[in-house]
Design a protein that fits this description.
252 residues; alpha/beta; six-stranded mixed sheet; 8 helices; 10 strands; 33% helix; binds adenosine-5'-diphosphate; binds magnesium ion; nucleotide-binding
Length: 252
Amino acid sequence: MAEDNVPDTRPAPPATAVRLTDLTKDFGTVRAVDHAELVIQEGEFFSLLGPSGSGKSTLLRLIAGFESPTSGRVELAGRDVTALPPHRRDVHTVFQDYALFPHMTVEQNVGYALRVAGVRKDERRARAREALATVRLEDYGDRRPAQLSGGQRQRVALARALVDRPGLLLLDEPLGALDLKLRQEMQTELKQIQRTTGITFLLVTHDQEEALTMSDRVAVLDGGRIAQTGPPLEIYDRPATAFVAGFVGVTN
Ligand code: ADP
Ligand code: MG
């Protein structure tokens, strides 16, 4: 077969969602993030795992643009955004403390950002309903937040982030306030939502099991440094440092 007649069917190399280059953040004398290097591919479910105080939230806030780095660079989808404010980064963040507007219906809460952005009413409603369907709350649009369970409220917060169709969704310990059973349900659901939307998810958690079961790849943080990056199995089977071994619970 003549080689030049064969169409090139090799998959295109995956596009880069996040690239952090030599990223450092100091708060006074505290180095919260220490020369971080990280590449996350588009469509990945990626987790930042580490104990309290290891710099997870600061790293996330640097990516979202809520903090400016002391030095280094943040690139999103191939674009240097280091100097750009949060609203120009095509990123949404879901926090553990997901304050909803109590006087608005679920659908109005989800559509709020679109209203602020001047999207007209029928499109707003259609997109809010689509986002609510993604989190399986299509029948709850007319309720008020107070009429929902904790897990349902967290799903509304997720829908509110998804309605904008962000390129990247940042989640800072989003399930931390839920009890164990609900947390496990929401883990399965989050994973499904990531798969169906194809949006790149970056999850911050201190829960080893959560990170290892949900993620395509994990970065383990130790005192502001990224100690290891890799797929869950690799981190579990071949921890790069004694800290990683201890933190993911490997005893050999
Ligand atoms: P994690 O999310 O892993 O718990 P953080 O990123 O919140 O860690 O914090 C990392 C380090 O940076 C901690 O020592 C914390 O006290 C410090 N830190 C975070 N934010 C600030 C701030 N705004 N001012 C001063 N120190 C901070
Ligand atoms: Mg934190």
